[in-house]
Please model this.
Amino acid sequence: MRHRRRRFSLGLIVALAIVVADQASKWAILAAFRPAGVEATPFAATGSMSILPVLDFSLVWNRGVSFGVGNTGGAWNVIVFAALSAVIAVVLLIWMARSQRALLVVALGLVVGGAVGNLIDRLRFGAVVDFVYVHIGAFDWFPAFNTADAAISVGAVLLAIDSLFGGRD
Model:
């Protein structure tokens, strides 16, 4: 029982670290891209910052879900996607509390932290702040994403690894 509680604490620490890193990175991007004299958020931003030949920072407001699916700007988007994120986070927290393997707990912590980070954006801004843009020259092979999205992706890969090699939990 004590080991399970310790592992759950590990998952919560991972989730909290992701939320803090995600919100801090989004705060920095919003500060860098906010036009002079504009106080309202979301705001229109133009241009991008080239970080590497294959990596730019470019501010995108995503009102949809993964890969911009449902990015229609509809009034229902915030309510539906925020509720969906909250339900998923609660279900994953319950799963995390019952888990016995450290890899599974860390994976769930990554996904929960990412879901909560994006949920905060939806509730604050009505959209998720995406800003990492990977490309090869003019060939853009991946939509803009953020720290929370990266954590969710890594967590999903770890969940797959755990399901293949971790045994039953």
Q: What stands out?
A: DSSP finds four helices and three strands in the chain.
